[in-house]
Design goal:
The chain has helices spanning 2-28, 38-56, 63-85, 87-94, 108-114, 118-127, 172-175, 182-192, and strands at residues 98-102, 105-106, 136-141, 147-151, 162-166, 169-170, 199-205, 208-213. By secondary structure, the chain is of the alpha+beta class.
Length: 218
Amino acid sequence: MEFLETVFILFYRTVLFFSVLMLALRIMGKRQLGDAEPSDLVVTILLSELAAGPLQNIEEPIYRSLVPIILLVVIELTVAFISLKNVNLRRFFQGRYSILIDDGKLNQAEMKKAHVTVDEVLEEIRQSGGIGIDEVRYCILETSGRMSVIMKNNTSPIKLPVSIILDGKIIYKNLSVCGLTKKGAISFLNEKGIRREDVFWMYYSEGEIKTIMKDESS
């Protein structure tokens, strides 16, 4: 009888925590683990650890895990919301991509900072159909930890887009890269009859400034 009771409790808790974790991940909009940002990975590990306790020890009350799981979901949603509004906080939690190869030239400083070896870069190049570094236009270490390789024979733009405005906020350190000043960026918007608060993304690419308004697909 005690054996059947234990089996029932384990079955009940397994189904419960499976459902709760699936719901939590759906609410937080988590991606597959291979594409996880650093903050995503931390939350995923914590959720799995919290769920493991009551499954390994049936004497442990369920609420001791359910309450922290709910708090994690609330914290993650709060951070995600604030990150949408604050570029610096978003970079703190999600990191920033690194350009490891720029027009066939290795960026050794970025490689050292990211702890990436030449062998790892060459492996990604071979998987993208290339052989040597001189064939690569860009090799980018994404915030997820994956590398994106753009070959020189690729039809993609020659230069990566540089953000000028994100969600209505000017990225001041990028203005000089685009040959702009704060006054110049605002003048550009005024000429187009656009309010800065209505801009979702304004970026510089291939000598042109392009703008995507909020709630606009392109």
